[in-house]
UniProtKB/TrEMBL annotation:
<dbReference type="InterPro" id="IPR036365">
    <property type="entry name" value="PGBD-like_sf"/>
</dbReference>
<keyword id="KW-0732">Signal</keyword>
<dbReference type="GO" id="GO:0016787">
    <property type="term" value="F:hydrolase activity"/>
</dbReference>
<feature type="signal peptide">
    <location>
        <begin position="1"/>
        <end position="21"/>
    </location>
</feature>
<feature type="domain" description="Peptidoglycan binding-like">
    <location>
        <begin position="148"/>
        <end position="200"/>
    </location>
</feature>
<keyword id="KW-0378">Hydrolase</keyword>
<feature type="domain" description="Peptidoglycan binding-like">
    <location>
        <begin position="61"/>
        <end position="115"/>
    </location>
</feature>
<feature type="region of interest" description="Disordered">
    <location>
        <begin position="35"/>
        <end position="57"/>
    </location>
</feature>
<dbReference type="InterPro" id="IPR036366">
    <property type="entry name" value="PGBDSf"/>
</dbReference>
<dbReference type="InterPro" id="IPR002477">
    <property type="entry name" value="Peptidoglycan-bd-like"/>
</dbReference>
<feature type="compositionally biased region" description="Low complexity">
    <location>
        <begin position="35"/>
        <end position="50"/>
    </location>
</feature>
<protein>
    <submittedName>
        <fullName>Peptidoglycan-binding (PGRP) domain of peptidoglycan hydrolases-containing protein</fullName>
    </submittedName>
</protein>
<dbReference type="InterPro" id="IPR052905">
    <property type="entry name" value="LD-transpeptidase_YkuD-like"/>
</dbReference>
<dbReference type="Pfam" id="PF01471">
    <property type="entry name" value="PG_binding_1"/>
</dbReference>
Length: 212
């Protein structure tokens, strides 16, 4: 798929996401994935990658989670715990060696650029505005719950906890949100508010999940 075609797909995906964020429609539509690009930084994610903080072994939080999910999407056996431990270190060092980067395990500018700096913006550029609505466990607003389900699917595409059952934000989805919150360093209440939405969108962006 060329860059122009990729952007057309991305724009359609962003418009659909904007409609969902406004609570006007339901569904978890997905966009076709776009390839990594060697084009100029105006069409790829170089600038975004350059703004990421340095991450070291022992670190915790959303940046570690985003790193783990990016590596998971590349085939490394990581689940996304939000803790930079031995398994993550081994994966990072293997990735660094494969990309001609000193395998220190420290994720700095060169490693972030190799991880997603050359990805097309269609993979890393999500909706400009995060949802303004909150979601409490037990929520039955179909549009809101579907939007949360679509977001969780981008984070955990091979799992089933994001599935919307009867338009209810029920126990299975709540458990998955709590899991995300713990990994991202957010109080694991299951309540989806501004902090959780923001962290979800950031992690999806760094892991290249907007192209699904």
């Amino acid at each position: 798929m060329g860059i122009k075609a990729c952007f057309r797909t991305s724009i359609i995906g962003l418009l659909a996401a904007g409609v969902l964020a406004g609570g006007m429609a339901a569904g978890a539509g997905t966009a076709a994935a776009c390839p990594e690009s060697t084009a100029s930084s105006s069409t790829n994610s170089h600038s975004y990658a350059s703004r990421q903080p340095q991450v070291r072994p022992g670190a915790t939080g959303k940046h570690v989670l985003a790193l783990q999910l990016n590596l998971r999407n590349r085939g490394y056996q990581l689940t996304g715990t939000g803790f930079y431990g031995a398994k993550t270190l081994a994966a990072v060092r293997a990735f660094q060696r494969a990309h001609g980067i000193k395998d220190s395990g420290i994720v700095g500018s060169k490693t972030w650029q190799a991880l997603f700096g050359r990805m097309d913006l269609g993979l890393t550029l999500g909706p400009a505005v995060t949802p303004k609505f909150g979601i409490q466990p037990g929520e039955r607003d179909v549009a809101k719950v579907n939007h949360l389900g679509a977001t969780l699917k981008r984070l955990y595409p091979t799992e089933s906890g994001w599935a919307v059952r009867g338009g209810l934000y029920g126990p299975e989805m709540v458990d998955m949100v709590k899991r995300f919150q713990r990994a991202a360093g957010i109080k694991a209440s299951g309540i989806v508010g501004p902090k959780t939405w923001s962290a979800m969108y950031d992690v999806i962006s760094v892991s290249g999940g907007w192209g699904r």
